[in-house]
Amino acid sequence: MAESINLAVSTVIFALRPHPDTQHPVLWLPLVRRVRSPHKGLWALPGGPLGSTEDLAASARRNLHETTQLTPRYLEQLYAFGRPDRSDDRTVSIVYWALVHADVASAGVESDNVRWFLADELPKLAFDHSQIVEYALWRLRNKMEYSRIAAALLGETFTLSELREVHEVVLERTLDPANFRRQIESTGQVVATEQFRTGGRHRPARLYRHDHSIELADNGPLTGR
Amino acid sequence: MAESINLAVSTVIFALRPHPDTQHPVLWLPLVRRVRSPHKGLWALPGGPLGSTEDLAASARRNLHETTQLTPRYLEQLYAFGRPDRSDDRTVSIVYWALVHADVASAGVESDNVRWFLADELPKLAFDHSQIVEYALWRLRNKMEYSRIAAALLGETFTLSELREVHEVVLERTLDPANFRRQIESTGQVVATEQFRTGGRHRPARLYRHDHSIELADNGPLTGR
DNA sequence: TCAAAAGTGTTTGGTCTACACCCATGG
DNA sequence: CCATGGGTGTAGACCAAACACTTTTGA
Question: Is the Cβ pair B5, A7 closer than 8 Å?
């Protein structure tokens, strides 16, 4: 009986890029257009069947790279979706969520069947993928509060204002700059450099980088906790 | 390629029962003895292949009932384990964890191939099941702090001391009775009854019950959040 | 009347928040 | 020299731990 069940791995990929109108950074995610039934023509999460000798996370990483040419800065298992009615062909999907650093260049890999969308302006998605994205957004917002995954959305160095802006976009609320600074500094997740960002009509901001001595991603229960 | 991958659902089941020596309540969990290769004779988590029209949680619930004759008071997806080397036959296991209320009577369903073990005195387990149990314990302890799953380990009514004892056993540390009382009362997850537990050489303790108007288990992302 | 646990009150130390304020720069 | 954001200081609100204390029972 089990031989009729398909197993797939899909990934919700988030990146921070400017809003086309406001130029303010907002969350984007890439989708692929289905070229086969069912749900042919609808947009869906990137993913596919698990390779017979492939690890789950490796499958997610591979799909992510094939879709976006990118390597995730953060990758974590989200949930296994298995309701019998979620697809016609009885597929259980193990879903990961990822953060990538998508600059303008990497946006060039878009094609007719791969496109980046604003996270809050998604089209109708295939299967239960809309619910999956909702859940991934919920997890992202929750994790943001006690983790430093915002790091994965920025470059190697950044000002505290830039880091705060990431938090504000993800959490959808403004944060007090003074308190945010203290909060970040107290965790020690970030280290000051001797460089400064100049150019604004104001005092230059010190650049920081992440403390790479601490692991970033939660790679699941098997990698020491 | 995907057709060679097996999909199984397993469950880590926790219950609170007295320690055989001290009579103090401690965590127990039931295991089943493998009757087939590989790992024949070793103890393993209850589980089995997913039914072709069965929901993941339903499969966990079914296995749990077949093993212990019990119905879970709490059931939540834990993680999907899929390392290629975790079994010889390339099985991906979607693991749930559950809390049950196991009284002495239900312990009677033990047999040669089903036995309850102290959670901190487990034998060598088949496959990667030892790591899975470790992870489930970690999740239990984490969730305890901000949830009321302790409820699922107790009967319909209980004193605050009993509830505190559950927390203390799971978290492996003592808690201040006064602060614990305030903390629990402030959440409103528990409501006072007009009954009291008498019999000790001390002032009778008021019995409480859980507020059933609030959902208990986290049934995943698809059931409203 | 005493031991033991139930239950209450109070102090205290830390953390979070709001906001006033100074600093350094580009224009 | 002034507008702008970088960065610091600080008072009040809030919260949780510690612990002294009172209450009520069974023996």
Answer: yes
Instruction: Compute CA distances A164 → A178, A184, A213, B43, whole Å.
Output: 10, 9, 22, 50
| In contact, A189 and A147? CB cutoff 8 Å | no
Classified by CATH at the fold level, domain A147-210 comes out as Arc Repressor Mutant, subunit A (1.10.10)
Domain boundaries, chain B: 6-142, 147-210
d(CA A128, CA B52): 19
> Residue A143 has what pLDDT?
86
- Is any atom of nucleic acid chain D found less than 7 Å from the CB of residue B179? yes
Cβ count near B189 (within 10 Å): 16
> Within 13 Å of residue A143, how many CA atoms lie on the same side as its CB?
22
Residues B50, A5: C-beta atoms closer than 8 Å = yes
CB B27 within 8 A of CB B169: yes
B27-50 as b/e, with b when 16 or more CB fall inside 10 Å? bbbbbbbbeeeebeeebbbbbebb
Torsions phi, psi for A208 (to 5 deg)? -120, 160
Is residue B187's beta carbon less than 7 angstroms from any atom in nucleic acid strand D? no
Residues B171-204: pLDDT tens digits? Answer: 999 999 999 999 999 988 899 999 999 988 899 9
Count Cα atoms within 13 angstroms, Cβ side, for B10.
Answer: 25
Which 3-state string (H, E, C) describes chain A? CHHHCEEEEEEEEEEEEECCCCCCEEEEEEEEECCCCCCCCCEECCEEECCCCCCHHHHHHHHHHHHHCCCCCEEEEEEEECCHHHCCCCEEEEEEEEECCCCCHHHHHCCCCEEEEECCCCCCECCCHHHHHHHHHHHHHHHHCCCCHHHHHCCCEEEHHHHHHHHHHHHCCCCCHHHHHHHHHHHCCEEEEEEEECCCCCCCEEEEEECCCCCCCCCCCCCCC
Question: pTM of the prediction?
Answer: 0.92
The amino acid present at B175, given as its one-letter code, is: L
Fold identical between B6-142 and B147-210?
no
CATH code for the structural domain at A6-142: 3.90.79.10
Q: Residue B129 carries which side chain, given as an amino acid letter?
A: H
**Cβ-defined contact of A52 to B5 (cutoff 8 Å):** yes
Judged by a CB distance cut-off of 8 A, whether residue B56 touches chain A is yes
A183 residue type, one letter: Q
Q: Which residues touch strand C (CB under 7 A)?
A: A 176, 178-179, 182-183, 186, 198-204; B 159-161, 177-178, 181, 196, 200-206
Residues A47-78 have pLDDT tens digits of 999 999 999 999 999 999 999 999 999 999 99
